[in-house]
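Regression test case RT-17, inverse folding.

Input:
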């Protein structure tokens, strides 16, 4: 009898173990983790790294949108839940480690140009403009135009976009960490080494580089956490002063809310003021090409870009990103877009959409605990961003520097992205210069029609401003 019980217990344990293996295998199979030479641990670390690198948006976006007239709590809820929903959607549908959140730049346009500038529209109308821009981009994706434009870009320019973004990311890290500061005489200057902000930045860079050299798993994440802790006694890491545990959904469905003082919905107001449609075009250009650059950059780090710069299975990525733009307007969070900081997670080992699930869960959690994220300073993430920038420069050897029609457009793209603080501007410079050089060389017929269309669109954007 005792032997029978022992065998039964043993078989039961085997059954439990088998079930556990099946559950693990199902996650592995769904996200293709082993197929992409990753592990669940790598995906979790990658997701944590991406989240910490982009978590500043939780503090920055609500502050910008509050200036536009949206209640802070409503903007915070919209920012966190919008990012969570669309990041998880990217993970489940496209299965790529590309996280999304309200885009910096576009949120500033919404706040300071649309709502507080000469146009001075209600914030609900601004969100309706964002919503319409997302719908237009989605139509372009469904028609195959967005992918066709990416396919029309010469390989040298695709590589240049990723390299330029690498420099951009490193520049953002150095600027946020106080190592690069504005200067009236020289435009830029070296920061004050005695400043606590700079000292914490140096700690984060040193840690990130050393851990990268030692091939320590999660090295970028460790550098962020340690630098955050080091910054506490130095007064660099801000400690929470208040807690907010509530959610405010009053910004949701903003385009379909009635504008105060009128009896019409916000989205109707856009069509009643045709001049606002120019903003739809302007935001569309920014979203369209920012995402293009981001996807290429993350793809190179995540190993889903081929030697010619073609992104594997790009259509679902572009579709989710397009829906996210419209969703941002609907949530009242400004346009939600792919975040270039996702490259840090890819550099930390993320290869699948499982890392996105981690990011999405953290966004939901910190919708209630935003002050904790406020503790992660720009100095703490400086090292991770600098190392990611260094990693992205490795693609520079893929460009043919012996031919000016490839070399100069690549050069001006690489230079333009960080110096104008805009991925879209850098891409525009590259497109226009490529077409001009081809015309001068008598090779205009080699330029694909969609490249001409994109170059003209950029020229219009630059002229109109």
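Golden output:
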């Amino acid at each position: 009898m005792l032997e029978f019980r022992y065998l039964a217990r043993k078989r039961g344990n085997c059954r439990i173990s088998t079930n556990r293996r099946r559950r693990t295998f199902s996650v592995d199979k769904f996200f293709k983790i082993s197929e992409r030479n990753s592990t669940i641990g790598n995906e979790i670390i990658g997701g944590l790294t991406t989240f910490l690198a982009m978590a500043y948006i939780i503090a920055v976006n609500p502050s910008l949108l509050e200036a536009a007239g949206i209640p802070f709590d409503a903007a915070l809820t919209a920012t966190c839940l919008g990012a969570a929903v669309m990041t998880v959607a990217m993970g489940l549908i496209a299965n790529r480690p590309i996280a999304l959140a309200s885009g910096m730049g576009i949120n500033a346009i919404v706040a300071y140009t649309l709502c507080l500038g000469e146009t001075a529209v209600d914030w609900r109308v601004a969100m309706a403009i964002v919503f319409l821009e997302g719908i237009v981009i989605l139509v372009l994706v469904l028609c195959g135009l967005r992918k066709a434009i990416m396919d029309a870009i010469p390989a040298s320019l695709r590589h240049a976009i990723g390299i330029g973004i690498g420099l951009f990311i490193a520049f953002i890290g150095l600027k946020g960490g106080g190592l690069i500061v504005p200067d009236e005489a020289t435009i830029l200057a070296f920061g004050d080494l005695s400043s606590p902000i700079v000292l914490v930045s140096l700690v984060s860079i040193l840690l990130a580089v050393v851990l990268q050299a030692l091939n320590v798993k999660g090295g970028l994440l460790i550098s962020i956490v340690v630098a955050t802790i080091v910054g506490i006694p130095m007064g660099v890491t801000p400690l929470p002063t208040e807690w907010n545990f509530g959610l405010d959904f009053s910004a949701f469905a903003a385009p379909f809310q009635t504008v105060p003082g009128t009896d019409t919905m916000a989205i109707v107001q856009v069509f009643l003021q045709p001049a606002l449609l120019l903003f739809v075009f302007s935001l569309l250009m920014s979203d369209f090409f920012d995402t293009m650059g981001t996807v290429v950059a993350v793809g190179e780090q995540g190993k889903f870009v081929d030697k010619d710069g073609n992104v594997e299975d790009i259509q679902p990525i572009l579709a989710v990103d397009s829906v996210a733009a419209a969703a941002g307007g609907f949530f009242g969070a400004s346009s939600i877009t792919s975040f270039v900081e996702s490259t840090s997670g890819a550099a930390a080992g993320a290869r699948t959409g499982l890392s996105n699930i981690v990011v999405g869960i953290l966004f939901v959690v910190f919708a209630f605990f935003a002050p904790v994220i406020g503790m992660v300073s720009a100095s703490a993430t400086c090292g991770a961003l600098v190392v990611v920038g260094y990693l992205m420069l490795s693609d520079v050897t893929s460009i043919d520097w012996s031919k000016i029609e490839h070399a100069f457009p690549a050069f001006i793209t690489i230079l333009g992205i960080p110096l104008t603080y805009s991925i879209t501007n850098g891409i525009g410079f590259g497109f226009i210069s490529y077409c001009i050089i081809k015309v001068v060389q008598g090779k205009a017929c080699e330029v694909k029609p969609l490249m001409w269309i994109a170059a003209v669109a950029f020229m219009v954007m630059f002229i109109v401003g």
